[in-house]
Amino acid sequence: MSAIESVLHETRQFAPPEALEKAATISGMPAYRALAAEAEQDYEGFWARLAREGLTWHKPFTRVLDESNAPFYKWFDDGELNASYNCLDRHVEAGNGERVAIIFEADDGTVTRVTYADLLARVSRFANALK
């Protein structure tokens, strides 16, 4: 049996646009390496910090990872959150309601942009219909 051999050796690097670089959550490889090192040194503490900083919890978790029934691990199993709230409401409440949440391009090429505020209104109407 023969092995697959790569004949293309790409060495070019493409820098991101300056605006994208300035808006990035991780500012470059040194910041990425620091984040990866933090996760490797204390993965439970790392994920606990990110979960507390990045999500709104209805009932805060006290346990990050339950490994008692491997391989069926449970993350944040004693905490409670509302996924819809975290995806929509909190962004509208933070003043980002007019930002585009979804860009949809139909088969005919028609493009529809839906803001967070509009998407929240649509989700709320649908949720009320389910009551």
Automatic annotation (TrEMBL):
InterPro entries: ACAS_N, ANL_N_sf
Leader sequence segment: none
Pfam families assigned: ACAS_N (PF16177)
BP-aspect Gene Ontology terms: acetyl-CoA biosynthetic process
Domain Acetyl-coenzyme A synthetase N-terminal stretches: 32-87
SUPFAM superfamilies: Acetyl-CoA synthetase-like
Protein's recorded name: Acetyl-coenzyme A synthetase
Originating organism: Burkholderia territorii
Taxonomic path: Bacteria, Pseudomonadati, Pseudomonadota, Betaproteobacteria, Burkholderiales
